[in-house]
Design a protein that fits this description.
The chain is an all-alpha fold. The chain is flat and about 185 Å long. Mean pLDDT is 74; it is low at 19-39. Helices cover 76% and strands 0% of the residues. It is built from 14 helices and no strands. The chain has a domain at 176-210.
């Protein structure tokens, strides 16, 4: 039987050797397995594979960086869209509008102005495209105009008359001998015998056989003498007519150029051009010279709508002038109000009363 420890130190020293023994016994119980060391070839293969993996990794990283740099450079050098152009401001209303309507042009939205101008351009293009057709109609009307009374006498119209004439011409060219003979006989009876009687048959027969009436020799001689004597006078008249015609064309061209330039600059010229023409024609008949500007002013004053617009504009201008004058006067009053008042020169006091009044006046200032 052993003696029990009597102090704390002895208890601790006796406890420590027991723990070491337990640990040694536990370590002895574990059976250590032999670890085989790797050979040199295996180590080399592992190092080679690690190097290859690292190279592949760096290559992929470099390719990714290059691709990113290329994309960024493409993005930086890409063409950037320029600033959008603002819609063109349309300042003037179409000249085809009435003057009182054109006054509201400035207050219209830009979209409506653009749509109106687009419509105007479409109309102008249509007029240009149909210009040839309109010229053809005008020429046709000029050709038909001298013969309108005959067409009306037949209870027909210009198109029907032209169609009948062309049908007659085609029948004369392509018809048989019997058809042509019958047609000519109808024409002779209607327009020949019906107007001149049976004597027309003899004249027609002479014309068909080629018998042309012969001119008398004495009459031919007299005619030749007159032509020779009148030749210088005829030449002079021809030259005079040519010079007069050239001068008239030159004056007409100059007048047309002047009128065109004036109409482009005058605001209401398209609205009063006919009135201007009437005024200038009346002035010419009376032997009085009237300029384009004078005719334009008189025509604008004579037109009630244009006169009303000009009066309203004049009132606005006068109001603006009055407002500007008032502002100037107000500014002048403000600038002068702080300055000391300049007293009028006073006479020297010659008596007691004058001295007192002068002193009072100076003290009150």
């Amino acid at each position: 039987m052993t003696n029990e420890p009597t102090t704390i130190r002895d208890a601790l020293e006796s406890a420590i050797p027991q723990e070491e023994e337990v640990q040694t016994s536990s370590n002895e119980a574990v059976v250590e397995q032999p670890v085989s060391e790797p050979t040199e070839d295996v180590v080399n293969n592992e190092q080679t594979e690690k190097l290859q993996d690292e190279q592949d990794k760096f290559a992929k990283t470099d390719n990714t960086n290059i691709a990113n740099q290329a994309e960024s450079s493409v993005d930086q050098t890409a063409i950037k869209p320029g600033p959008k152009s603002e819609p063109k401001q349309i300042e003037k209303a179409p000249v085809s509008w009435k003057p009182e309507v054109r006054e509201h042009w400035a207050s219209l939205p830009t979209e409506i102005k653009n749509e109106v101008m687009r419509r105007e351009r479409d109309i102008q293009n249509t007029l240009k495209e149909s210009n040839e057709a309109r010229k053809m109609v005008e020429q046709f009307n000029r050709v038909i105009q001298p013969y309108e009374m005959f067409i009306k006498a037949e209870n027909s119209n210009p198109l029907q008359a032209v169609d009948n004439l062309m049908a007659t011409a085609a029948r004369l060219r392509t018809g048989t001998s019997g058809d042509v003979a019958q047609m000519v006989a109808g024409i002779v009876n209607q327009f020949g015998v019906g107007r001149f009687g049976k004597a027309f048959i003899e004249q027609l027969d002479s014309a068909l056989v080629g018998e042309i009436p012969q001119e008398d020799a004495q009459s031919a001689q007299m005619r030749n003498m007159l032509q020779q004597q009148l030749a210088p006078v005829q030449n002079f008249m021809n030259q005079f007519q040519q010079a007069q015609h050239m001068q008239q064309e030159r004056l007409t061209q100059e007048a047309a150029t002047e009128v065109q330039g004036f109409l482009q600059n005058a605001e209401f010229a398209e609205d009063v051009r006919e009135d201007m023409a009437d005024l200038m024609e009346v002035a010419q008949r009376r032997g009085r010279e009237l300029t384009l500007q004078e005719a334009y002013q008189q025509a604008c004053i004579a037109n009630p709508k244009i006169r009303s617009i000009l009066q309203q504009r004049g009132k606005s201008v006068d109001a603006n002038k009055l407002t500007g004058a008032a502002q100037k006067a107000k500014s002048a009053a403000v600038s002068v109000s702080g300055a000391p008042a300049i007293s009028a020169p006073q006479r020297a006091a010659v008596d007691v009363r004058s001295a007192i009044e002068s002193a009072i006046a100076s003290h009150s200032r």
